[in-house]
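Working notes for the structural subgroup meeting. M.R. asked for a predicted model of this chain before we commit to crystallization trials. I am recording the input and output together here so anyone reviewing the notebook later can reproduce the run.

Input as submitted:
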Amino acid sequence: MSLIYQKLTQLLLIVLLAVSPLSIYAEQSSDGGWWDNFSLTPGLGFRHLGVDVTRQSDGYHGNISNAGFAQMVFSLNIIFNEFQLDEEGKVFLELNSYTSFLNLDHQFYSFSSSGDTNYGERVDVGTSLNGYYTYFLPSIKYALKLPRGGEMSASLGIGIWSSEFSGDMILTPDGRPVSGMATANLSISTIDEPAYMVNLKWRTADGWVYMMSVGGTSFSDEQFRYEIEEVSMIIGKVVYF
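Returned structure, recorded in token form:
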């Protein structure tokens, strides 16, 4: 528990250090202070998330995900603030975070003896990964106001990823896991790995948000290398403060 507390404290410090200087600028350039644009968007939708794991000692690897692009997921998107960067009001810098949970239980089985990940199927071999993850991303957003209110936007964010998840996977030299094979136990706890996310968003005049996101990260520890990619489609309702 002390390790988790330490990492949450570190994450809070990173957030405060990132937001504080920009909040001072916002207070000087707006009437109501930097909290004017603070918002929460809880959402529900579908997501495909894949975790690719390679053992560094022998190169054995595996990929685990949900069964297909059909896993329902809850997410929470927080926008701390946004700052207009042009005179026309189309380009903004956003400070936001995105949090969700993962529950993965299907590994990729390659039909090719070379382990080609483009040709195969998802199979349940009795392994799983469970936990949560968070992106914290300064993002550049291009937005267009809609005639009847609302907004359409596209944004690119590059920032950090933090996560806590654990479970097991079957790692093989040929990408062909079979139930009953030896498993590798995984326990991942990260705080500041580099990450990216691309968002396409449509917000209606009454605050409904339709969002498609593509994001990911990659990092290593002493035993394994991890590559994580996700695609999600979320519907939510924005709440301003």
